[in-house]
Amino acid sequence: MSAHDFEFTAIDGQPIRLAEFAGKPVLIVNTASKCGLTPQYAGLQALSEKYGGRLVVLGVPCNDFGGQEPGTEAEIKKFCATNYKVGFPMTSKNAVVGAGAHPLYTWAVEQAGEAAVPKWNFHKHLIGADGRLAATFGSKVAPSDPALAAAIDAELGA
């Protein structure tokens, strides 16, 4: 099993099959609109723009931590577009921890153990072009962090 075996529902209701991203690394980030880390949206958008179509950034709105994503999908989409000009794909709201966690998050924990369990909003999972879990980064690792850039570049063979 690989990350390519999973799918999400997009924020607008369409399916997002991770298999569609095969051949490209994917940075999956659980997001929230009312968090002290919410400004990371700007950095995620910058990453998406920097790497163009070579990297997919995928935002997964999540209300698991402090109730910091209380909005509807329409409200989240508007907030992200208005405040951060988010152009990367976003999913519908999903749980990322606990019994109701999206299956991709359960799989990630099976692959990497405790390091893959999001402890807060803006935890990052880097999926390799081949669908394996390449790396995980905690919430406080900014999208501009050199270690994250190095991991992305390694996945791109740069």
Provide structural commentary.
The protein is of the alpha+beta class. The chain has a single domain, classed as 3-Layer(aba) Sandwich (Glutaredoxin). The protein is 28% helix and 17% strand. Strands 4-3-5-6 form a 4-stranded mixed β-sheet, with helices on both faces. The radius of gyration is 14 Å and the shape is globular.
What's the structural blueprint in terms of helices and strands?
Layout: E1 7-9, E2 15-17, E3 26-31, H1 40-51, E4 56-61, H2 73-84, H3 103-112, E5 124-127, E6 133-137, H4 146-156
- CATH-level-4 superfamily name: Glutaredoxin
Unreliable runs: none
Radius of gyration, CA atoms, in whole angstroms: 14 Å
Which topology does CATH recognise?
Answer: Glutaredoxin
Largest sheet: 4 strands, mixed
Class, according to the CATH hierarchy? Alpha Beta
* H/E element order: EEEHEHHEEH
Mean pLDDT: 97
Number of DSSP helices?
4
User: Beta-strand level of the residues, as a percent range?
Assistant: 15-25%
- Going by CATH, the architecture would be 3-Layer(aba) Sandwich
- Domain module count: 1
Distance between the termini: 26 Å
Fraction of residues in H or I helices? 25-40%
Structural category: alpha+beta
Q: Got a strand count? A: 6
What can be said about this structure in brief?
The chain is an alpha+beta fold. The protein is built from four helices and six strands. Strands 4-3-5-6 form a four-stranded mixed β-sheet, sandwiched between helices. It has a two-stranded antiparallel sheet with strand order 1-2.
